[in-house]
Design a protein that fits this description.
By secondary structure, the protein is an alpha+beta fold. It is about 35% helix and about 25% strand. α1 crosses α2. Keywords: Acyltransferase, Transferase.
């Protein structure tokens, strides 16, 4: 746990945080113009982050009254080139009323520190190409765009069809 200011702390997520984490996920989906895309539930978050075999992790910024102000949800990747793990930041979200207070920087710094502590080789994430405030924020922190790489995704019927080719 790291104290940021005025009773605000950055800490790993723990059981009991699921509802606040889900609220951040929904707020992020709203911001990204996908308000109906979230199928996640507090129960699913509990299993994913705190179950017997966690596959994802979260850091959060908590206010003095226990309110979750920001989240960073991440999981491990593996680089065959470096032979080491890395961190994939799935979601970084700071509630609008708490932006420009250093919470996003603190969450990214905590993830960078996690990489260094564990010997991970990289910290990576995607950003929507229209999200200029986020792009500028990341650029100011030294994050480089991977211009030659594009993300690909298979979901829904296409995922089922691909699996059926086996």
């Amino acid at each position: 746990m790291t104290t940021l200011s005025d009773g605000v702390v950055l800490r790993p997520a723990r059981r009991g945080d699921e509802t606040g984490i889900l609220a951040c996920i929904q707020a992020l989906a709203d911001y990204e113009r996908e308000p109906d895309a979230v199928d996640n539930t507090a129960e699913m978050i509990d299993e994913t982050l705190f179950g017997d075999d966690p596959r994802a992790f979260a850091f959060l910024v908590e206010g003095p009254d226990g309110d979750i102000r920001a989240i960073g949800i991440w999981f491990l990747t593996y680089s065959t080139w470096t032979g080491r793990h890395g961190i994939w930041l799935e979601d970084l979200y700071v509630h609008a009323e708490h932006r420009a207070k250093g919470y996003g920087v603190a969450l990214l710094a905590a993830l960078a520190a996690e990489c260094l502590e564990k010997g991970y080789s990289r910290l990576e994430w995607t950003v929507l190409d229209w999200n200029e405030p986020a792009i500028g924020f990341y650029r100011a922190l030294g994050a480089e765009a991977m211009e030659e790489w594009t993300t690909r995704r298979v979901t829904g019927d296409a995922l089922s069809a691909l699996a059926a080719r086996l």
